Amino acid sequence: MIKSPEEAIAILKATRLSELEREDAIRFLQEYPTSEGMRVLVAALQDDDSGVRWKAAAALAALGEAGMPALLEALCQPSEDELLREGARHVLHYNRSPRVRQQSRELMQALTGPGASLTTMEAAHMLLPLFR
Questions:
Q1: Contact 111/120 with Cβ under 8 angstroms?
Q2: Which one, 113, 114, 119, 129, has the greatest CB density within 10 A?
Q3: The pTM is what?
Q4: Where are the alpha helices (DSSP H) in 1-132?
Q5: For residue 129, what are the contacts with CB-CB under 8 A and spacing of at least 6?
Q6: Range 105-129 average pLDDT
């Protein structure tokens, strides 16, 4: 049984642990959100385990606006990582916040296609002040 966000973060980062243990950590971080926990959930969007990536994206989507600063900060960084952009699309599309879904339309378009790494950075940078 996970007892603290710090323990959940350590479990999620421990890639040698089972997918189920790491998904339990994601559930805990969703239930007891912290800023560090959100950053770790965003980092998990790039995990080697597809189940962990999916669960992290679902958790961030369920957190609504609370998860946006960490996601947008990650997307503002130069990255060619398609897994991060794929996870971000899932977070934005299934986000429980109507405001997030409405405000992130340009970002959703920027996440795909030629030049996605640059257009994503620009769109995320424009949105970040709205969710800080």
A1: yes
A2: 119
A3: 0.96
A4: 5-13, 19-31, 35-44, 50-63, 68-75, 82-93, 98-103, 105-110, 116-131
A5: none
A6: 95
Give Rg (Cα) of the chain.
Answer: 14
**Rounded CA gap, 25 and 9, in Å?**
7
- pLDDT reported for residue 114: 86
CA atoms within 13 A on the CB side of 121: 9
Residue with tokens 């603290």: 4
d(CA 97, CA 63): 8
Q: How far is CA 130 from CA 44, 69, 122, 123, in A?
A: 24, 9, 14, 12
Residue type, 69: P
Least confident range from 32-36, 79-83, 96-100: namely 79-83
Please state the φ and ψ torsions of residue 97, each to the nearest 5 degrees.
-90, 120
Instruction: Supply φ then ψ for residue 46, to 5 degrees.
Output: -110, 10
pLDDT confidence of residue 6: 98
Q: Which of 68, 54, 57, 130 is nearest to 91 (CA)?
A: 57
Q: Domain map of the chain by residue range?
A: 5-131
